[in-house]
Amino acid sequence: MRVLVVEDDNDLNRQLVSALSDAGYAVDAAFDGEEGYFLGDTEPYDVVILDIGLPKMDGIRVLEQWRRSERNMPVIILTARDRWSDKVTGMDAGADDYVAKPFHMQELLARVRAQVRRASGHAKSDIECGPLRLDTKTARVTLDGQPIKLTSHEYRLLAYLMHHNERVVSRSELVEHLYEQDFDRDSNTIEVFIGRLRKKIPPDMIKTIRGLGYRLSVDES
Ligand code: CA
User: Fold this and answer.
1) Would you say residue 221 lies in a domain?
2) What is the whole-number distance in angstroms between the Cα of residue 140 and the centre of ligand 1?
């Protein structure tokens, strides 16, 4: 899952990026409204965290312009504590949720997980696919109840496939949602990671759909 953080406070931006990276997300950061608007307009994000008070272009305008051009990714706005009107304006501009500053990182992470889940059609925080279970709260995967060891890239890949299970996911979609903007995006690496995952889970669970991509599924067909 890929997240965009748009926040002009350097310290807070850094804290957000590191907490989200630790939680298993690929994270891009922008420090003003123009840069944030551009990234959100051109890159596919699973969730955006958008500050309201931003230099060059304020958060509300950024959000309105995205929505006007059908950029429909989940957006969580960061508002100042006492500015209740920012929440109203933000939600009306197309925000999906808000967090008032100062906030606990754990609360923000829970809200991010909820948006990722909802966007992929899951209501519960545990996602099951046959013998596999993904606990989105702890970023752990178990197979028949036994934890499986995954590197961070393997985790990102498997978590994405589990959120979108029973659907064919193309290689380019995986590359776009699993790596940061400045990552060297060679789609052959996806194949390598798929190969490694097949050694850790029942290998036929990840099916290669020729010319289209991969599908994680439990059925035998
Ligand atoms: Ca700000």
Assistant:
1) no
2) 33
**Domain endpoint, select from 76, 102, 119:** 119
Domain count, the chain: 2
| CA of residue 33 to ligand 1 center, whole Å | 10
pLDDT, one tens digit for every residue, the chain (221 residues): 999 999 999 999 999 999 999 999 999 999 999 999 999 999 999 999 999 999 999 999 999 999 999 999 999 999 987 788 999 999 999 999 999 999 999 999 999 999 999 999 998 889 999 999 999 999 999 999 999 999 999 999 999 999 999 899 999 999 999 988 877 777 678 999 999 999 999 989 999 999 999 999 986 54
Domain that includes residue 29, residue range: 2-119
Distance 94 CA to ligand 1 centre (A): 19
Neighbours of ion ligand 1 (CB under 5 A): 8, 51, 53
Q: Is the pTM of this model over 0.70?
A: yes
Q: 128 — phi, psi (to 5°)?
A: -110, 145
